Amino acid sequence: MAEFETLDAGGESIAVRKNLEVPMRDGVNLIADVYHGTENKPRPALVALSPYGKELQAMALTMPAQRRPSPMWDGCIEAGDITRVVKEDYAHVIGDLRGTGHAEGEHIGNYNAGGVSLGQDAYDFIEWVAEQPWCDGNVGMIGISYFGSMQVLAAAERPPHLKAIFVSGGHYDFYETTYHGGIMWFMPRAAREGRGGDSGWAFTDNVKSRMLETFSPGEIQERVAERLADPDVAAWPNLVHVLNYPKNHEAWFDIITNELDGEWYEERNPITLAPNIDIPVYLQIDQGRGWTMDGTIELFDALQGPKKLDIGSYPPMQSRPFIEEHDKMFRWYDYWLKGIENGAMDGPAVNVFVEGSREIASGEQWPPLPVEYRPLYLRPRRKLSFEPELMGAEYAAPDGFYQAPLTVTDKVEILRWDTEPFDEPTEMIGTGAAHIFAEIDQDDTNFILRMWDTAPNGKRQLITTGYLKASHRELDERTTEGNPYHPHTRTEPVEPGTVEEYVLRLYPFANTFKQGHRLTVELSNAEPLADEHNSLLPPDAFHLPVGRPVTHKIYRDAKHQSRLVLPFTVKGVEA
Fold first, then answer.
1. Each residue of 222-244: b (16+ CB within 10 Å) or e?
2. Whether residues 325 and 473 fall in one domain
3. 260, 162 in Cβ contact below 8 A?
């Protein structure tokens, strides 16, 4: 074997192989660092691939894990605990994707690189690793978020030596990663550019916009003008800047100029590729980031091979450097890569931590327990009730709020409704829906709904969220009771002054409301800048606010039954 340098970290002696060239089939070289034990022998390898730079990942050797809201938290140190990987006798292989870090080639778009699928590059990378003398031919993968998405893209290509994957906190449906209910989410900008707690991509001169590569200057100019005509976009300085200077923010420019779902996102959608995956897959996600849970569950349902789904507890953000879930991961890989009979496949396929009761609900599918969808109606005097309102609109006058743009105010107006205290523990597991009958005086707005568990002392925890841009209210054929779907393939402006029904998808959750607790729901068209939940998120984890003044009237009367439709578990019945 080739010589290596050694270092000591956490009392562990580690062999380090730096800047290894990994050839791709088109002649481009990716670059990798490898960490393993000093004993000169082959061992299973865990591969981590991203555009964030392998040198940043090496900080896991020296930086204690940081939790939000620590200012040292860096969302891009996601490749795992190097020292722990080595201690468990695996080789930790951290690579730079093409066009980033020290790698050659062009990086164009998010999951496309120089016209080459990143899954194809991952295939070549994994097969090269398997042939090295320090690897015994058994390869898995490691890392969260972008690293997690890369695991799915790699597995869909079926490299022969990739024996299993363990994905924690991945992002999948790329449209749903960037637009929640049609409302733009700012976090991809942070991950790309290095803002608000993220170091961002490791820039090279060969990172390009897919849109600029695909369309003519005239077509781009037309598209930019169309986006700047949106008052929400035009009111936000960063978006105006990106649209005028796209080469400085190429991936973010691509997202801004594709506000509808369709082909541009579909070719980057790991969920579409998931039916090609037949190797063992362990999916893990924590509650509190509802859209990510939704994609994880959708991916789980599409997989064809042995699989596990583990939904963990709140809060929403894991440590950086990423250290959580390693015990479960090594048990998984010891079983599938080392052949150790440790019972990793025993027990139910799905395990869900239920907030409130702090118990585990288990089953063979999501939701793990049988559920019955029941409505909770918005009522006058800001109440939520299992009984609908009997009075008409002439007596049950609508609730309302006027929201000025955040360009002229920093106050976010929020409507709130509460149930009476529950007289017994009440468990809900699944997705949900919010049917909101509303009248607005503009042709568009946002509806942002947040559902809380409020304790008798007033302390509360976020349970789930729902987002919908009013012009994206169209539902499609997948919609069922309590489980709405929006295609997001076209917009339908609202006729001001008309009452419309807006059905928000409430992202998956699992919670037991204890005796004496209340269910609280809040509705707004923007997010408060700081509260109990947002303090746990990076500064850029917000959505594009409405850029025009809007008056909202929320009807909840006998004719307009605004309500939540929620998944109450049914005890004593097998799923």
1. ebbeebeebbbbebbebbeebbe
2. no
3. no
Tokens of 148: 């997690």
- Which amino acid, one-letter code, is at 500? E
Beta strands in 183-246 (DSSP E): 183-184, 207-208
Residues β-bridged to residue 37: 14
What's the pLDDT tens digit per position in 416-474?
Answer: 999 999 999 999 999 999 999 999 999 999 999 999 999 999 999 999 999 999 999 99
At 283-297, the pLDDT tens digits run: 999 998 778 899 999
Residues 381 and 312 in one domain: no
List the one residue out of 557, 469, 441, 454 whose CA is nearest residue 511.
454
CATH number for position 478:
2.60.120.260
Contacts (Cβ under 8 Å, ≥6 apart) of 381: none
Same domain, 442 and 528: yes
One domain, residues 337 and 398 = no
Please report whether residue 256 resides in a domain: yes
Residue 392 CB neighbour total at 10 angstroms? 11
Q: Are strands 165-170 and 107-108 parallel, antiparallel or unpaired?
A: unpaired
pTM: 0.95
Amino acid at the residue 442: Q
Q: How far apart are the first and last CA of the chain?
A: 53
- Residue after which a domain boundary falls, among 311, 346, 381: 346
**Mapping DSSP to helix (H, G, I), strand (E, B) and coil, where does residue 108 land?**
strand
In what helix (H) or strand (E) does residue 300 lie, and over which residues does it extend? helix 290-302
Domain span at residue 380 reads 371-569
